[in-house]
Amino acid sequence: MTIKATPVIKDGCLMVRGKVVLTRVPQNILVSPASNDSAFFGATDPTPSSRHVFKLGVLEKYRFLCLFRFKIWWMIPRVGKSGSEIPMETQMLLLEATEESALKDEVNSSEASTDNTFYILFLPVLDGLFRTSLQGTSANELHFCVESGDASVQTSQALEAVFVNSGENPFELIKNSVKILEQHKGTFCHIENKKIPVHLDWFGWCTWDAFYTQVDPQGIKEGLQSFLEGGCSPKFLIIDDGWQDTVNEFSKEGEPPIEGIQFATRLVDIRENTKFRSSGPDEDCTSLHEFIDTIKEKYGLKFVYVWHALAGYWGGVLPTSDSMKKYNPKLVYPIQSPGNLGNMRDIVMVILEKYGVGFIDPSKIFDFYNDLHSYLASNGVDGVKVDVQNLIETLGSGNGGRVMLTGQYQEALEKSVSRNFKENNLICSMSHNSDSIYSSKRSAVARASEDFMPREPTFQTLHIASVAFNSLLLGEIFVPDWDMFQHTFYC
Question: Cα-atom radius of gyration of the chain, to the nearest Å?
C-alpha cells in the first residue's frame, strides 16, 4: 500500500504519511496544496474580525520542538510531548513521528518498518494582511491565531495560515519548506538568494557591552588600542547605541528615576551627538567623518557600522524637532497582541505604551532612511545595525495592520541600504516576529537570540541554546548573528 506524504484530513483527523497527527479536527478547517507533499491549513468563521483563534485539532503523544516568542522581540526553544505545552506566539513546531508516536495508523504495524521515524513541520505564516501563530490549550488542543493588528482590517477566512510538511531529515525538511514558501508567497527570499555582507569574514567588536549608551570616541580608541596590544585587532566595528542626537523629555533632574524611562528617548537629528564632534581633550577629531577616518587608518578597520532603531530611536523621533518635521511624525501609542501579553511583558513596551512613540509617516519612511544612510555613508560609515524592529507590529492600527506596515518599513530599509551601502551591509535585530521574517527580501543577517549578557552567568546556557535552535528556522532566511561573546585568556 502506498502512503502519500501530503497532509490530509480524514475522519476528523489530520493525517501525515499514514500517521494520525491531530484528532478532533473541526469541520471549518480547510486544506489546500502547497506542493506535491505539503499543504496549507486554514479556517473560516461566519463573523469577520481582525483576530481569529481557530482550533486545528488535538495533539498528543508526539515529542516536539517549538520556537516561540517569550517576549515581543525574541524567540526561544521549548520541547514537550503534548499540545498543552505549546506556548502562545509559537512560530515553528517540529514533531517527531515514530512507530509509537501516533494514536493509530492507517498501516498495520506488522507491515511497517521498525525504523520509521520522520518529522512533521508546522510553520504559521503570513496570509495576505494577516500573520499567524500557534498556541496550545490545557485540553491539548492546538490552535492557530490569525491577526491583522488593525481593527478595521478584518476577514472571515484564512486560507493559507499554517504550512505543513514532512520529511526524514529535519534540517532538509526546514530548508525545503522555506524554499517552497519563498516561491509560493513571494514576500521574502531564502538566504541562498541574498547578497551576503563581506563583514562576516572578519573578526569584529561591538561597543555595547563595553560602554552601553555611554560610548564615546575616546573609549572606542582605548578599546581598539587594547585589541592591538593584545595582538588580535578587529577589522569590523559596530558603534552601538549612544552616538545619536536624542532627547528624553520625561527624565527630570532632581526627580526620582523611573524604571525604563530611557526607552522613551527620541531622535532629534540624523547627525551624530556632541560626543562624536570631539574625540577627547585634545579635540583632534571634530566630526564623525574625521573620527572614522582616523580609527580606520590607525587600527586597520575595514568596516565601521553604526546602530539605529527601525523607528529612529527607542521612542521614535521627536515630532517637534525641526529636523524631523519633514517626515510628518506624530505621537502614537503601541497596541500589543494578546499573544505578546500572554508571555513575558517587556519594560520597553510598558514605557512606550505610557509615553508613546514618535512615529514617522509610512509614506516618508524611505526618505528618512535615505537621508540618514546617505549622511552616514558620506561620513565613512559602511553599514548599519537596525534594532527594535518588532516595535512596528504594535503600530499597525490605522495603518493597514501590522503585516502591511512591517512590509513598508522593511522595503524602505532594504532599499535605502542597497542604495547607500555597497555590500548589503545590514544587521537586523530584535526582529523575531513572522511579520519581519517573512517580509525579508534582501536583509541577509539577523540576530539569532536575545543579548549576550556577560554579567549574568546563568543566562549563558540559554543564550547558546537559543541561538542554536532559533537558527534552524532563521538560518534558512538569514545568516544567524550569535551576538557577542566574552573570553578570558590565561597565561
Answer: 24
